[in-house]
Amino acid sequence: MEPIRWGIVGGGEGSSIGYIHRSAATRDGYFRLTCGAFDINPERGKRFGMQLGLEESRCYASYVEMFRNESFRRDGIEAVTIATPNATHYEICRAALERNLHVICEKPLCLTSREAEELLKLAKERNRVVGVMFGYAGHQMIEQARRMVEAGELGEIRIIKAEFAHGGLSAAEDARNESLKWRLNPQVVGPSFVLADLGIHPLYLIRAIAPGLNIKRISCRRQSVVKSRAPLEDNAFVLMEYDNGAVASMWVSAVNAGSQHGLRIRIVGSKASIEWSAETPNILSFEPASGSPRVLRRGMPELYPSAMAEDRISGGHSEGLFEAWSNLYRRFAIAIRGKAFSLHEPSWYPDIEDGANAVTWIEKCLESSNQDGRWVKYESCV
Known about the structure:
Layout: E1 4-10, H1 16-26, E2 31-37, H2 42-51, H3 63-71, E3 79-83, H4 89-98, E4 102-105, H5 113-126, E5 130-132, H6 140-150, E6 157-165, H7 178-181, H8 186-189, H9 194-209, E7 215-223, E8 235-242, E9 247-253, E10 263-269, E11 272-277, E12 283-288, E13 294-297, H10 305-308, H11 321-337, H12 352-369, E14 376-377
């Protein structure tokens, strides 16, 4: 298909997230980077954009200037990625939608459910796609897990155990790292640290793998293990109950000393269980109630066709985060263009409703935690 004319806000020089976005979006040729507002320092942003091969006139000082100028061009952008700190997501996403641009936004979508409701309404009015970058959902074995649940291979879902607990900020002095400092500033990240930064990833994986489950109520306890981080939490425990009677527990932490990453999810059904870890993303453990456990591997012919459709290299080789993000950008492109490329093309992607649900979940977790873990009713803003 014709590449989508695409720009980026943020993600400039030295940004690892910006690099992943650019690599993933352009890998399959579905997006073409044509402009950007890469940095709060206009000169540095312009220099960086030109290093990427962009025209000097399309390396903008701000997103406001970029959206305005691009709207007057016959070859102006059709979509934009927002790769800036949390507190700016709402205003940039709103401005993009008002210019009739499709949006791919870093998580969280925004900071409050009121903001989420406004973005939902605007996206619907303008008929624009808004994708939220829950990047781990692009791994091939997440698609496999989703199809296994859909096919009834696990039976009725009963128990979910999820965690995203790394040790990257175990000590107070870790926050001196300039690339991490902003994550501990409430004015930049909002009222939550690890729930908003880490917790919504396994939350969305549950939703992606078992979309038929709906949360009924939540209980949360959160801590500032490093006391200077208060009121932001660096550790939290969340319990959830679903409408089918299933229960879930989640641990999210930035003080799990020694853990390099720590994202994993286990889903237990009446017939079988599955387990997946982001540190070994190319395998999915399948453990039936009767019979021998199996390890399903990426790229093998026994996988569901929609999982194989996302295979990028032959089986036996490892695939990683770049491939997962590329799969999601491929899905975003399909949604934006409104067409599928093959019979088994995956059609789901983390959309604005998923982003809004995550924002509501964060608020409910904070509400519960502020009442010493009291169970609170979960009501989505969607």
